[in-house]
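Write out the bound-state structure for iron/sulfur cluster.
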Amino acid sequence: MYSEEIKREIRALLQKRNGVLLAHNYMRDEVQEIADITGDSLALSMEAAGTAAEVIVFCGVHFMAESASILAPEKTVLLPRLDAGCPMADMVTVEGLLELKARHPGVPVVTYVNSSAAVKAESDICCTSANAQKVVDSIPGSEVIFVPDRNLGSYVARFSDKTFHFWDGYCPTHERLKAEDVVRLKQEHPDALFVCHPECNPKVVALADHVCSTTGMYGFCRESSATKFIIGTEAGILYRLKKENPGKEFILASPALICPNMKLTSLEDIRDALTSMAPVVKVPEEVRVPAKRALDRMLAIPRD
Ligand code: 13P
Ligand code: SF4
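---
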């Protein structure tokens, strides 16, 4: 009952502010339920770039709200929990990237969107897990610097002739899934397909029947004739998978697949942000302009 009331309040505030509520696929169920758009990092960036709304309430983590601010500087971008960060994004600093660039002069930098605006500003092009392969294929030359996710980088490198220079970053949540967990579940459920995100460790990825972004998982599980899936990504994805596929069974590959940052945002936080119009995420122009160049190059590549 209380939750219905707060949802009504949020809808009314969104209308009053001419706002749109974007939620990543890992958000809490009740946040996904009330969102105007749910999606992966790429879909949400595209939505932020194209929306007619004046206020973007970004239910995700800090780098995602920064991307929205970079792409839509004239809008007010609210991140209901300013403390929702991404430990992987924090693993690469501008200084570290500049050092890596100095060691490989002239080599193009491909930066996963899970990174700060300042790091994007020092990059040639961004990528997400949904388009990393196409992004790497689109750049000239035989070498690439790939930051910060070593796991996504090594997955993409398998399909490329280029020499990769990795940053040693990783997602602590996906890294918690161990190959032994998957082997055991596959034994217990021999009829299930194992689908995982490329942020998983390569030993886990090697066991997968399919590797894809979060949005890719919705399509794969919907279209597959299989009826049972072991899911190797953050638990929030189960909400829509179950809702959209009532006849199918989804087993989370490990109970440790919970990103604490993605779970911070509550309905109360959203209501409070829309009431006070804070916290706002705004990227300064001197960082925004070069960071936008890297994001725009990525967005120019058509999505499948
Ligand atoms: P995407 O599928 O949106 O790339 O999800 C990865 C992720 O961890 C976002 O933080
Ligand atoms: Fe960052 Fe991993 Fe959480 Fe995504 S799931 S926000 S990559 S820590």
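---
The CA atoms of residues 48 and 68 lie 5 Å apart.
The chain has three domains: 4-85+262-282, 88-171+287-299, 177-252.
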